[in-house]
Write the structure tokens for this entry.
Amino acid sequence: PFWLKCAEGTPTQFAKSSLTRLLAVNLRASPHKMGTEAMFAVKGKDFVIIAADAMTAFSVMKLKDDYDKIWEVEGKLFAASGPSADASNFMEFIEKNINLHTLRTGLKLSTKASANYTRNELAQSLRKKGSYQTDLLIGGVDADGPKLYFMDYMGSSESVNKAAHGYGAMFTFGLMDRYWKPDMELEEAKDIIRKC
Amino acid sequence: MSYDRAITVFSPDGHLFQVEYAMEAVKRGSAVVGVRGADSVVLGVERKAVAQLQDARTIRKIAKLDENLTIAFAGFTADARVLIEKARIEAQSYRLTCEDAPSIDYMARHIAKTQQSYTQRGGVRPFGVSSMISGFNADKSPQLYLTDPAGTYSAWKANAIGGRNEKAVQEFLEKNWTASLAEADAIRLTVKALLEVVDSGSKNMELAVSRYGQPVRILKEEELEVIIADIEREIEEAKKEAAGASAAAGTSMEI
């Protein structure tokens, strides 16, 4: 099953949707183990919707099929793919630091600021102790509208309307390009995610 | 210039004068009252009159340490700021390591440990701050902790630090605190205790109410005004009754 998370102006709601299970495919070992995981996101008129698969595997064994890869930090959604060690270690670190910032200043970081902070941590780590093998999709809704960021494990970050990670991205980018349009309603966006 | 000479040294009769002087600095700070209820903890602070050109909103004496921990302090604001910053980092660090919220006892102990370490190091002076921390245990029981410049920490049912007359407020609380106070009663007790040393008026005090599992609530000015007005009315009526009773006693004596 896929976990769907939707960031709107109001507290986040999430719904479980039963779609095709993603099978674990054992690939040749590569420095960046890409692709057995899939995540998609689209930006709507006043919301961002992020979907991530719920599988975590070890070699050919599927350990869990209800693993939540979408983190909620101060109202922003972070979908983190990659080996769960890297993803959870990195995201826990980001989460605690963003929470500390809110406690210190009494203000919530904007989506842009959160994304920039995250990409900086990725970039610095890459040049110090090595990379966190985690690609991210970051979404949030601020006063000036919804924002979606596509981020890869090296720290490149781009504000986009639609994004996807993993091998699944190869198949779905075309789909999203075909069906996405500006200022979509929630149902239209859900439809695209369903297609993905 | 080496900084290995301790500033806090023992006096011949066993006093740490620097620590005691730090406690004097706390007494000169504005008052803080803490009251533990049956299922809530109330922290009340005195808001000293601000200069005309100053923006009162930027003077925050009640700070959030972590999701469920609130702290109020008496003494040097600058010292308190440093202490609170250290505590906030420690709380998040604890959460990063243990993936769990730190208990109020842990946080109080950490702050107290920090304060103590500054009484036993070279080249530093103690923090001129006493703090009151409100929170809840895992079993949902309300907790109120106190730390002082010496680095002692302890849990209290109710206490007061700083302000014009710390002793008087403490005695007032001792006389009037009862177990199992409902939230509204805990709030009233805090306000009454503050009124012992603070000029009346919602502009001169700020109250923070904590309940288990909920974000801390700072009482709005209007709410506070209503409570203060009510308490003052109560005091007035009590005075009138006392005056009436003594007058009646007087006339009966004449007959």
Remarks:
- The CA atoms of residues 210 and 216 of chain B lie 5 Å apart.
- Residues 221-254 of chain B form the longest helix (34 residues).
